[in-house]
Design goal:
single chain, mainly beta, Immunoglobulin-like, seven-stranded mixed β-sheet, 7 helices, 11% helix
Length: 783
């Protein structure tokens, strides 16, 4: 999971549980205690947590909007508004002190104060669920040996890699040599294992009509469900669904239901960067974890395990981008789609192509209808719908349609069916629907006689003319009319009758940018806006005159992302852009990624030159929780998590005000060679002579493999390594619970509780109350 870390141990959190209104200081304090207990601040039975309210000097008094409570081992920032997340941030290490708090932390608290006053949070009210461990074990990528059978050594493409990893999870169809395939490969692998996975990748690419390129290969996301259903033997439940027809809550419920059912989800989204514009990526969502009260989904990015971690669905932003990725700072947060219901079919489906369904509704819908008796039909209604020929290969096709009544997946009755050629001919003067074209139509239907009370769905069915088998039109899963029959009354509810076609419209209330913008430093652009669209998670974009060569009045697309807002809602979205020149920037907020002709808001920013000072930051210590005694360079760590802190000092001549990156690298052979696995980026402001501790945590690491930590700073726009590879400690992940059995250490060893309070000597360990203690940085349990 990518976390935002501001100064010492500050974790920005968005809990979805809220406090009962009104939120008094005492109620907030009790909630803070509960939260800290969940975080492990006090796990011994009966142990109390002492909290005192801190004076922040930036957000105090009755209208502060927040409470900052100090504990002996840190602090927690609580919301004073029941409409917003309860826990906003927490810090580990030392209590909050307004006299020593870095400016960035004070700015954060002030931002919360202002934000709560204006109800400026956009985190949707989404409940949390039970954890689900990652399902997919494969950690595959797009290069060798996976692309050994791709044309001219081109990458496999993210769509093929994501598909192949999910197919490997199911080991289906049986015709592939699954037993030879490995969960991870090196680029020099050859033989049966390499051949088996290369064939799978090439076949996936062929069936989704992959467009191969030397640097990246691409395919349409909607072709994935069709290939799985009709070429690889997966069930008719395999469906392609769009995010834009779901609320944040209902989308979360849909994706979680798949993961909870042990079905990985193929997921796609778009990202914006100033260098490449809009780029999409396909990946796998296969797990779920609650942290700090918020729900995060596990993402397998298809980059050989690199950047795999837990993310919010609204902020799918990997730390590192690899083949097929895009260095968009706001993540793959818009134009999101998912392929759900993936599972092998009991019987192969009849090979066919489907038209795509959009905007199913009832013309002049009254919402409620009555009939004279339960044996009679309800009054006739006109079902309106749109359909498009988007299946590959790119040919014109003749289709038939049907309007059908279902209960879930059970067909109840076909209400209307006919060839589409007359309607198509009327519009296009041909019987076959041209590729990538569509039409809208409406047909009257009547039903109700003989139906039991209950909920039904009106869905649009598709088949190629001349065939016999009906199937749901593509996207019919998400576009339908729900009918609820109770005696002589029928109520109707439309699902998915929205369009995601831009440009998108918003009321922009304000735009703020992060402090001290300069060349090479990511600049946060926070937009407070009200959504005026009919679709959900509508995106917003920032354009600017970044290129002096193109002219001061020439604007380029610089940033963009989904707002995660439902129609009519107000909130904030934060986008990032890294300036590459100094001077005056003129920016425009737009609802279009194609142009900025319609300007929703404009603003200017002065960007300073890049700092040319040498960065002289020393790494004083890298401390890893639970690390055993060193054996040469190697220290063993139980569990599958590497967490701890980096202590550093600014020995330079200028304040360091930029990002620090903590990189996790894999060194399985412990021979000095390495490759990056994940990283966490921290924006810090470190004065000359000041020292600071930066927390880190990396989850779901491979057992019996070796990892190390490298820290990078930014010097004149380039990464500068602050510690070495060959001399630093390597950590061997051993698995297990991460809690060692009771062992008596030397008599003078200090014993600490999980609050960091010394409670005695190791010789006294057995006499201490039951619980978990720390000796020499390792956890010990007393039973």
């Amino acid at each position: 999971m990518k976390r935002i870390l501001i100064t010492t141990f500050v974790w920005i959190v968005g809990l979805v549980t809220t406090l009962a209104a009104p939120v008094s200081e005492q109620a907030a304090k009790r909630a803070a205690m509960d939260f800290l207990r969940q975080q492990g601040a006090a796990t011994t039975r009966g142990e109390a947590i002492e909290l005192t309210r801190a004076v922040t000097e930036v957000a105090d008094g009755e209208d502060a909007g927040i409470f900052v409570f100090n504990s002996p081992s840190g602090y927690v920032v609580m919301s004073a508004d029941d409409d917003l997340p309860a826990v906003l941030a927490y810090g580990r290490g030392t209590p909050y002190d307004s006299q020593t708090a870095p400016p960035a932390l004070q700015a954060l608290l002030e931002a919360y104060h202002v934000g709560i006053a204006t109800k400026a949070f956009t985190r949707a009210d989404v409940p949390t669920h039970s954890d689900v461990a990652p399902l997919v074990k494969a950690k595959w990528n797009q290069r060798a040996p996976f692309n050994n059978l791709c044309p001219e050594g081109c990458p496999t493409g993210c769509v093929a890699t994501a598909m192949a990893q999910v197919m490997h999870y199911y080991q289906w169809p049986a015709s592939y040599n699954w037993s030879q395939m490995k969960t991870s490969y090196s680029d020099t692998d050859t033989g049966a294992a390499a051949d088996a996975v290369a064939k799978l990748m090439a076949d996936c690419g062929e069936k989704v009509f992959m467009k191969y390129g030397k640097e990246s290969s691409s395919a349409k996301s909607h072709l994935v469900s069709e290939a799985l259903r009709y070429d690889f033997g997966y069930a008719e439940t395999t469906e392609f669904v769009p995010r834009y027809v779901y609320t944040a809550r209902s989308w979360d419920a849909l994706i979680y239901s798949e993961v909870a059912a042990k079905r990985p989800v193929l997921y796609s989204g778009n990202s914006v960067s100033s260098g490449r514009g809009e780029v999409g990526h396909e990946f796998v969502i296969d797990g779920y974890e609650v942290k700090g009260g918020a729900g995060y989904y596990h993402v397998n990015w298809g980059w050989g395990g690199s950047s795999d971690d837990y993310f919010l669905l609204s902020a799918l932003n990997p730390t590192y981008q690899y083949t097929g990725g895009n260095a968009g700072s706001s993540g793959y947060s818009y134009v999101q789609y998912a392929v759900i219901g993936i599972q092998p079919a009991a019987e192969p489906l009849e090979k066919t192509t489907r038209f795509s369904v959009e905007r199913v509704s009832i013309k002049d819908d009254k919402g409620s209808y009555t009939r004279t008796s339960t044996s009679a039909d309800f009054p006739a209604i006109t079902v309106s719908f749109s359909f498009f020929n988007t299946s590959y290969p790119e040919v014109d096709r003749e289709y038939d349609y049907a309007i059908a009544l279902y209960q879930d997946r059970k067909l109840v009755e076909i209400l209307e069916q006919a060839p589409l050629k007359d309607a198509v001919n009327y519009v296009y003067k041909t019987d076959a629907l041209p590729f990538n074209k569509g039409i809208s139509m409406g047909r009257p239907v009547a039903f109700g006689s003989g139906l039991s009370d209950g909920k039904y769905q009106i869905r649009i069915l598709s088949r190629e003319s001349g065939t016999t088998a009906w199937t749901w039109g593509q996207k019919a899963f998400a576009a339908y009319v729900e009918v609820d029959i109770s005696g002589t009354t029928m109520t109707t509810t439309t699902q998915g009758n929205v369009s995601a076609k831009g440009p998108f419209n918003f009321d922009i209330h304000s735009v703020t940018v992060s402090e001290e913008p300069r060349v090479g430093k990511p600049m946060a652009i926070t937009i407070n806006l009200t959504d005026k669209n009919e679709s959900f998670n509508a995106p917003v974009f920032v354009w600017g005159n970044a290129s002096i060569e193109a002219g001061v009045d020439s604007y380029q697309l610089l940033a963009g992302g989904g707002t995660n807002l439902d129609p009519g809602a107000t909130g904030e979205v934060t986008l990032e852009y890294t300036p590459q020149r100094s001077g005056t920037f003129n920016f425009v907020v737009s609802g279009s990624s194609e142009n900025c002709d319609t300007q929703l808001y404009s603003f200017s920013v002065e960007v300073a030159e890049m700092s040319m000072a040498d960065v002289e930051i020393s790494i004083d210590k890298v401390m890893v929780d639970g690390a055993g005694e060193p054996n040469g360079r190697v220290r063993k760590v139980a569990g599958q998590r590497l967490s701890g802190k980096v202590s550093l000092t600014n020995n330079g001549t200028e304040t360091y005000n930029d990002a620090l990156r903590i990189l996790l690298y894999n060194n399985t052979e412990a021979k000095g060679t390495y490759h990056s696995v994940n990283s966490q980026t921290v924006n810090v402001k470190l004065a000359v002579g000041q020292s600071m501790d930066i927390a880190f945590q990396f989850n779901d690491l491979n057992v019996d493999e070796y990892y190390g930590i490298i820290v990078y700073a930014i010097e004149r726009g380039e990464n500068k390594k602050l510690n070495g590879l060959n001399s630093d400690t390597i950590f061997n992940i051993t698995g297990g619970s991460g809690i060692a059995p009771v062992e008596l250490d030397e008599e003078d060893a200090d014993v600490y509780n999980l609050n960091g309070v010394r409670v005695g000597k190791s010789s006294e360990l057995k006499s201490l109350p039951k619980g978990i203690y720390i000796i020499h940085g390792q956890k010990r349990v007393v039973k």
